[in-house]
Amino acid sequence: MNKYIKLVLGIALDAVGYVSFFIPGIGEFTDIVWAPVSGWLMTKLYKGKPGKIAGVVTFIEEALPGFDVIPTFTLMWIYTHVFKKD
């Protein structure tokens, strides 16, 4: 997958995580479903040990109330394509 397609997809997935802020009261319950899905998606986008670690971090970030503002998919893209050059 092209790295820029991953960036756009990551930004979109981070935006999905922000949806819970727009639905007061019910929003945090959507994280019960979104947390495992986002963790799984992270492991599919980024293979290997970094992807697994990011998947766990994403799961925890989405599962905890109030931490949805952290753009984990975008941060993982930055880590993978800016800081960690192969």
UniProtKB/TrEMBL annotation:
Transmembrane segments: 7-27
Source taxon at top rank: Bacteria
Keywords recorded for this protein, A-Z: Membrane, Transmembrane, Transmembrane helix
This protein's name: Holin
Organism in which the protein naturally occurs: Algibacter agarivorans
